Automatic annotation (TrEMBL):
InterPro entries named in the record: ABC_transp_permease, ABC_transptr_urea_perm_UrtC, LivM-like
Protein's organism: Acidisphaera rubrifaciens HS-AP3
Record protein name field: ABC transporter urea/amino acid/sugar permease
Alphabetical UniProt keywords: Cell membrane, Membrane, Transmembrane, Transmembrane helix
Tree of life domain: Bacteria
């Protein structure tokens, strides 16, 4: 009778821990027990957890190693940044009620057509999901229909995010060029610099991450998820059984992109800026490392990996900033060679060892086969 409650507790533990720690950190900061910057810092970690979860869906369960998922994260961030810029109104440096400051500085005379509608939060929220999802749909349809896979697909995804990086650096794109979008004032009418607003954003991020985890778990445990794993492990055999692997890949690819876009949208108001640097291929590579450290194909592991790796980054860049990239490279090599299943793999091994009779049964099986 004990396995059922234990199996139920495992999926519930992650949302409870994520949301609970977000509420706790927010409460400690509002109560003056913890410094205020902890709220934005932990909020950033949870946003990275959303990105890591999105990468795990396509890599851990679909077998698609994406080196360009930061593009979807950044596009969601830019959509939210456009909404926040429209909320500034005449309070900008140049006092223009319609044009953002960077457009006035560049002598723009009218708001570009693709900026219209972003003064309304519901429209911006739709764009946060629609823009990354649409890009993923077009890219995925062309790539998967052509049966591009493996290292070739990884290189193409990296080329995609690099192309967007170069495009958004251009001033004539209308997204702030090198400086990006910043100097935000309000979100939904609340002062974005207020401690209460930042605490609310942190809790909202924890809730969204928890909901995305529940959704990802439901998808991967469903019949669709079982077929997706079959595509990952034996695509040709799955095709011969009558399934269309490209369709399953496309669905999980688009879902993952939308999830990453939502993470980017939550990231921007907490950090206070979005610029083309978010498209950098190194950001996508770091996301892959988070997943590898936490445990690919575990859902909970990538979230843990994102928080721990970025916490280590915060500590190390504050003391030895030039050593961080070397430490990150060493960490990836170490995990690949010593812990191929990541931290969650160690937890699962420990859990099996704790089960009464498991060690004896494994030993007996080994003797019987040896």
């Amino acid at each position: 009778m004990s396995p059922a409650p234990r199996a139920l507790a495992v999926p519930l533990a992650v949302p409870v821990i994520v949301t609970g720690t977000a509420v706790l950190v927010a409460a400690l900061a509002l109560g003056g027990v913890a410094p205020a910057y902890i709220v934005s810092l932990y909020g950033k970690y949870l946003c990275y957890g959303i990105l890591a979860l999105a990468v795990d869906l396509v890599w851990g369960f679909g077998g698609i190693l994406s080196l360009g998922h930061a593009a979807f994260f950044a596009l969601g961030g830019y959509a939210m940044g456009m909404y926040l810029m429209r909320q500034i109104g005449p309070r900008g440096v140049y006092g223009d009620p319609l044009l953002p400051d960077f457009m006035v500085f560049l002598n723009w005379h009218a708001l570009p057509w693709y900026w219209h509608g972003f003064s309304h939060f519901p429209f911006a929220l739709v764009m946060v999901m629609l823009v990354p999802g649409l890009l993923a749909l077009v890219f995925g349809y062309l790539a998967f229909r052509s049966r591009v896979s493996g290292v070739y697909l990884s290189i193409i995804t990296q080329a995609l995010t690099y192309a967007l990086l170069l495009a958004f650096f251009r001033n004539d794109m209308g997204f702030g060029g090198n400086n990006g979008l910043t100097d935000f004032k309000d979100i939904l009418g609340f002062n974005i610099e207020s401690g209460r607003t930042r605490a609310a954003l942190l809790v909202a991020t924890g809730v969204v991450l928890s909901l995305q985890y529940v959704l990802a778990r439901a998808v991967t445990r469903s019949r669709f998820g079982k077929v997706l794993i079959a595509v990952r492990d034996a695509e040709s055999r799955t095709r011969f059984l009558g399934y269309r692997p490209e369709s399953y890949k496309l669905v999980i690819w688009v879902l993952s992109a939308v999830m990453a876009g939502i993470g980017g949208a939550l990231y921007v108001p907490q950090i206070g800026i979005i610029n083309p640097g978010e498209f950098a291929p190194t950001n996508s590579i770091e996301a892959v490392i988070w997943v590898a450290v936490g445990g690919r194909g575990t859902l909970a592991g990538p979230i843990l990996g994102a928080v721990l790796v970025n916490f280590a980054k915060t500590l190390l860049t504050g003391t030895l900033p030039e050593a961080w990239l070397y430490a990150l490279g060493f960490l990836f090599v170490f995990v690949t060679l010593v812990m191929p299943k990541g931290l969650m793999g160690l937890v699962r091994m420990r859990r099996r060892d704790d089960v009464p009779g498991a060690a004896a049964a494994a030993s007996a099986a080994k003797e019987a086969t040896g």
